[in-house]
Amino acid sequence: MLKIVYPNCCGIDVHKTFIVAVIAITNNQGITTYHRKRFSTFTNGLIQLRDWLGYYSCFDVCMESTGKYWIPVFNILEEHTNVCLAHPKYVEAIRGKKTDKKDAQWIADIFKHDLVAPSFIPPLKIRQLRDLFRYGMKLTQLQVSEKNRYQNCLTWSNLQIASVVSDGFGKSAQKIIQSIFDNPEEKPTIEQLIHKRMKNKVQDLDIAIEGELTPEQAEKIRVIKAHYDALAICKEDLEQMIRELGRDYQEQVKLIQTVPGFKDELSALRIISEIGENMTVFDNAGKLCSWAGLVPANNESAGKKYSTHISKGGRYLKPFLVQIANAVVKSDKHLEFKNQYLRLKKRRGHRKAMIAICRRLLVSVYQMLRKQEDYNPALQGLTEIRNPDKTMSVQDAVRFAQQHGFNVA
Question: Rounded distance, CA 134 to CA 149, Å?
């Protein structure tokens, strides 16, 4: 018989406009009695839910994370109860026996036996910081979209400036485009508009701007540029809000900045917004890496191993760590990461090697926050900091030659 861990608990089935709550109270003889009630998701209804739980002295609650609808419920109950937020796949009821009341009772039944894996929910300030960072990512994506539309308009008008300069939004390129807008009938003087380091590209730029800009395309470009500039202003305001909110975590920021790749304050705050600043919620570094989706999956049945690809977890944290890892492995300042990347890339390929570097970075951040110590490669077991070995075995040499099209006798 399963052990009852929570003799007095509640299961909540969350919907958009209402929730169904079932309190399961188990006595010493193992007999469970249920109390059911339906509440509105308005603030008044959620306060009634909190008072109802207090009436039955129920301080352990489990609910599934249904879209964004669980957030108001969690905000009301967070300070008064121990809320276990579960992934829907862990609390899914038996097919054919699903109603709102049965779903809530099923959640309460499996939760009282401690069979539900709780999701990691950081404190309120961390959640607010996370929300600002993720909104900043959306603004960056909008900026990239506007850049692409801007370039499409130039291509439509056969203004091939982007084929000559590296950045179409650079100062020189913008001066040339603005000159074309101001005087569409006159060809601009390139020498007076570009930077002195681009003098060798004058002839190519003269040929690149021989297009025809219609009034409609010119107006569209102005609208796109205005929207892009407005997004840039919004990002600056957002970064200011993030810095003010992150003042409470300056000690943790300084520790994370000692880890390679996290020199910027915003980078350190961003990883704090995703994993929090209290590492005791994770039993070890492996649990954190598993939560972030950086470890292979366990999928074996009847002695046969199936796909062990990494999970889809950490869809905000993982891309950020990949950006950091790409910069770290190209630097010679921290050879412990570069050497590990080169060794793994040789056997497993670039993508798997990059995920391994991301995991190593996350483990380093975990140890810094857990031990309250600065980064030290020796303490992390990264003692090999010599230059990569340039020698090659005979087998590797043969394989390298064959990959490059040579026939090896």
Answer: 23
Distance CA 368, CA 255 (A): 6
Q: Are 316 and 274 in contact (CB under 8 A)?
A: yes
Q: What phi, psi does 61 have (nearest 5°)?
A: -125, 140
Q: What are the start-end ranges of the H helices in 183-316? A: 202-208, 215-245, 250-256, 265-275, 285-291
Sheet with 60-64, edge to edge strand ranges: 32-40, 18-26, 8-14, 60-64, 82-86
Q: How far, in Å, CA of 197 to CA of 276, rounded?
A: 45
Report pLDDT digits (tens) over 223-264: 999 999 999 999 999 999 999 999 999 999 999 999 999 999
In which region does residue 40 sit, left (phi positive, over 0), alpha (psi from -120 to 50) or beta (all else)?
A: beta
Helix or strand or coil: residue 268?
helix
CB 322 within 8 A of CB 354: yes
* Per-residue pLDDT band at 389 (split at 50, 70, 90): low
264-290 residue pLDDT tens: 999 999 999 999 999 999 999 999 999
Would you say 361 and 369 are in contact if contact means Cβ atoms under 8 Å apart? no
What is the C-alpha to C-alpha distance for residues 292 and 275, in angstroms, rounded to an integer?
A: 9
Q: Which residue has the tokens 């994993």?
A: 275
> pTM, whole model, 2 decimals?
0.82
pLDDT at 210 over 50: yes
DSSP sequence for 24-56: EEE-TTS-EEEEEEEEESSHHHHHHHHHHHHHT
Give the CA angle between residues 66, 271, 356 to the nearest 5°.
95
What 353-360 contacts at long range (C-beta under 8 Å, 24+ apart), as own/partner pairs, is: 354/322, 354/325, 354/326, 354/329, 355/294, 355/310, 355/322, 357/325, 357/328, 357/329, 358/294, 358/318, 358/321, 358/322, 358/324, 358/325, 359/289, 359/294, 359/295
d(CA 77, CA 9): 13
CA-to-CA distance for 372 and 324, rounded, in angstroms?
Answer: 22
| pLDDT score, position 379 | 61
